[in-house]
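Exercise 7. Given the encoded structure of a 403-residue chain, write a plausible sequence.
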């Protein structure tokens, strides 16, 4: 029997596997095409905002600050509609701008679905600042490698870029190194990642040091932890010091713990800063360590709801604390900045009769606070409306407090 006829027979597992492969490959091409379309659409929207800021800021004289606010309002509008963050929108737009302008051939392949979005990100990251005269050679070399798996593609593209403009590499490293930082990303089940951005050489040296200490510890006969666990514990000990001894730092994290849990009569979970669930045992332990953790007891029966209708502009300390606890993050849709770092904004402005009360105060991070005042983004306390009319619930309506 002819082998092509055999392959078309859906009763054969080989045929079904082949169909599955083709479907996955086709979907991959569609994803690349969709990414190209979304990136260039974001770039177009931000370009319109720059050219016609009045769409976002309302009528009035145009200066550089107003243009920047219009671009930010447009990025926030896209971010809310797409369910991504504003930096993601800006990155997509910036990539489309630089790639369409400097790598038109590569962009055409991307738009046809012949090169993946992940690969295009790598290229966009290295071509800013690359001299014009090496661009076409670089583009040809990149095109040849477009089918490589991502890690090899990334390594080769970075090497190519470094060879073609070596003096740029030092400048680029200097700019990148100025963005070193430490931050936390929450994970499920009470875990989190503590991430440090630092020069790669430093990162390797640091890990080698931690690994060396861990390998000494693991040889101890009583040691039950794995090497990976010991490494994590060593990093924690080196960085955090001894928290229980109260070598405390000036910042505190709110531990929200139901009263019955603290007394041990119920097992309701607590939270860190009102958003991150922690198990009852951990919550009780932390509530005992007053040096670092700020305890906030909640009573779900009496509710202890405080409210104010003060004739003062600044909220009193207990109202301030109540609002930041019941609204753990910035009220702007999709913004995750913790409310302890936010401004408290009068939803209805003080000069328009808005009261200093729990009903009329919402935490807004500095960026979204200014966006509300400088552009046509508006809120009624429960919903936000974008300058182009898209309405979406604020953070409170999406994320009710956990008690
Ligand atoms: Zn915000």
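Solution.
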């Amino acid at each position: 029997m002819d082998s092509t006829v055999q392959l078309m027979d859906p009763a054969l597992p080989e045929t079904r596997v082949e169909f599955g492969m083709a479907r996955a490959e086709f979907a991959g091409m569609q994803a690349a095409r969709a990414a190209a379309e979304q990136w260039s659409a974001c770039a177009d929207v931000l370009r319109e905002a720059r050219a016609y800021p009045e769409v976002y800021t309302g009528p009035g004289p145009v200066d550089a600050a107003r243009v920047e606010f219009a671009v930010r309002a447009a990025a926030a509008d896209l971010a809310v509609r797409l369910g991504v963050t504003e930096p993601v929108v800006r990155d997509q737009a910036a990539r489309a701008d630089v790639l369409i302008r400097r790598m038109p051939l590569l962009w055409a392949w991307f738009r046809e679905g012949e090169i993946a979005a992940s690969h295009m990100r790598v290229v966009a990251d290295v071509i800013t600042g690359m001299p014009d005269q090496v661009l076409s050679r670089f583009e040809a070399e990149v095109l040849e490698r477009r089918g490589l798996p991502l890690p090899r593609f990334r390594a080769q593209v970075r090497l190519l870029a470094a060879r073609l403009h070596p003096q740029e590499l030092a400048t680029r490293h200097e700019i990148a190194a100025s963005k070193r930082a430490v931050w936390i990303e929450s994970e499920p089940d009470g875990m989190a990642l503590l991430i440090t951005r630092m020069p790669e050489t430093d990162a390797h040296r640091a890990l080698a040091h931690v690994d060396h200490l861990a390998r000494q510890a693991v040889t101890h006969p009583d040691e039950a932890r794995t090497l990976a666990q010991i490494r994590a514990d060593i990093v924690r000990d080196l960085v955090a010091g001894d928290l229980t001894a109260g070598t405390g730092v000036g910042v505190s994290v709110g531990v929200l713990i139901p009263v019955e849990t603290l007394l041990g009569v119920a097992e309701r979970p607590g939270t860190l800063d009102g958003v991150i669930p922690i198990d009852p045992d951990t919550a009780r332990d932390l509530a005992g360590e007053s040096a670092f953790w700020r305890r906030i007891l909640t009573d779900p029966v009496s509710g202890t709801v405080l409210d104010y209708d003060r004739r003062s502009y600044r909220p009193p300390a207990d109202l301030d604390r109540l609002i930041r606890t019941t609204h753990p993050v910035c009220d702007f849709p999709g913004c995750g900045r913790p409310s302890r770092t936010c401004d408290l904004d009068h939803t209805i402005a003080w000069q328009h009769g808005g009261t200093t009360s729990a009903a009329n105060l919402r935490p807004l991070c500095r960026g979204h606070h200014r966006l509300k005042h400088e552009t046509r983004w508006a809120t009624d306390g429960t919903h936000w409306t974008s300058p182009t009319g898209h309405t979406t619930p604020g953070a409170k309506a999406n994320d009710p407090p956990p008690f």
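Remark. The chain is about 55% helix and 10% strand. Students should compare their own answers with the one above.
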